[in-house]
Design a protein that fits this description.
Blueprint lengths: L2 H8 L2 H18 L11 H11 L4 H6 L2 H8 L3 H6 L2 H8 L6 H17 L7 H5 L6 H11 L9 H10 L9 H14 L5 H15 L34 E10 L5 E6 L9 E2 L10 E9 L2 E10 L8 E5 L10 H11 L5
Parallel strand pairs: 1-5
Antiparallel strand pairs: 2-3, 2-6, 4-5
């Protein structure tokens, strides 16, 4: 059975229109007031979408990342002209720094290739670095009011429950099915409202593990028998435990020894240096998570330490102006300034 056949079987033509109307009416009365919803500026929309890709909304808004970023780089030209070190310092704490670099590349391409004006057509947007199917659809619908189907995790969850579909959402067939379904159900006359409503439905009502079916504005079209059991994921991430032992070394000039991060993931950031054998006093211990790792971090006092390759002595008063990996920023603030991060 095709996607269209399945949709029409569960939602006849007249019900598809009613489904869209019910969803949009609910959204118009219940929508959250997010700052990116008050603008049609594609640059501001792009910043919000990139930030929210792998970071919770409460962090992006509650900790002021979105506002600070736009204050530092108010338009695409400002971001294109920014030094990477400055960009990473403003982004610090959001993690997944590849997003910041991709955003930087996108801004440069818009300025250099498009004379500072974001293209509207999907193909032109997809030709920009860092713009994939989701981001292109978000820009087209939210900034330009163009009819583009849009699928994120919230939308996949809504569809899986709406059609009682147990296809793994992280499988090729599950992803393709969701995008096709989004195209069939799309409200082409109101793409901005409709896509926003669909995403917010998944975020606030059709939630992970605990759907609030009694408050759902489209519950009469839902065929899920056990909504809490959907969607199904095929891949389970295995968490690996690792240890990180580092030193906090200060010299007589009140400089702190810092190491440049290695690898593409954290390139351009700084951290406390590690040593093979550490004999100093334990100053701090804690843990943090990154992708599929749970890291036990221990910080020891360093004495008579010499800088090695990719390490530098940095004045303590300058540490706040450089980009430091979030776990180490927390350590520095607690040990050097006795402040919570």
């Amino acid at each position: 059975m095709s996607v269209v056949d399945k949709t029409i079987r569960l939602l006849p033509d007249q019900d598809i229109a009613a489904f869209r109307n019910a969803l949009v009416e609910w959204f118009e009365g219940q929508a959250m007031d997010y700052p990116w919803r008050r603008t049609r500026d594609p640059y501001a929309v792009l910043v919000s979408e990139v930030m929210l890709q792998q970071t919770r909304l409460a962090v992006v808004l509650g900790r002021g990342y979105y506002k600070r970023f736009l204050q530092a780089f108010p338009n695409v030209q400002a971001l294109a002209n920014a030094e990477e070190a400055t960009l990473l310092r403003v982004w610090e704490g959001l993690g997944y720094y590849r997003r910041a670099r991709q955003l930087h590349l996108t801004a440069k391409a818009v300025v250099e290739q498009c004379h500072g004006v974001f293209p509207v057509e999907e193909k032109a947007l997809r030709n920009l670095p860092g713009i994939g199917p989701y981001t292109a659809a978000a820009l087209r619908s939210f900034a330009f009011e163009e009819p583009s189907p849009l699928v994120d995790g919230n939308v996949q969850r809504v569809f899986a429950r709406l059609f009682n579909d147990a296809t793994a959402i992280d499988s090729t067939s599950g992803i393709k099915w969701a995008w096709n379904m989004a195209g069939v159900l799309l409200d082409e006359a109101r793409p901005r409202l409709y896509n926003s409503a669909l995403m917010e439905l998944g975020q606030r009502v059709c939630r992970v593990g605990a759907p609030d079916c009694l408050l759902c504005p489209v519950s009469r079209w839902c065929s899920a028998k056990d909504p809490a059991s959907l969607p199904v994921k095929g891949k389970k991430t295995q968490i690996t435990a690792v240890e990180e032992n580092v030193i906090l070394a200060l010299d007589d000039s009140q400089r702190c020894l810092m190491a440049a991060e290695k690898g593409s993931r954290r390139q351009g950031l700084w951290r406390l240096p590690s040593r093979d054998a550490i004999k100093g006093k334990l100053l701090w211990e804690g843990s943090y998570a990154i992708t599929r790792y749970k890291v036990a971090l221990r910080v020891y006092e360093g004495h008579d330490i010499e800088a090695q390759n990719h390490e530098s002595w940095i004045p303590v008063e300058d540490l706040e102006s450089i980009a430091v990996s979030a776990p180490y920023r927390k350590v520095l603030r607690e040990l050097l300034w006795d402040e919570e991060s």
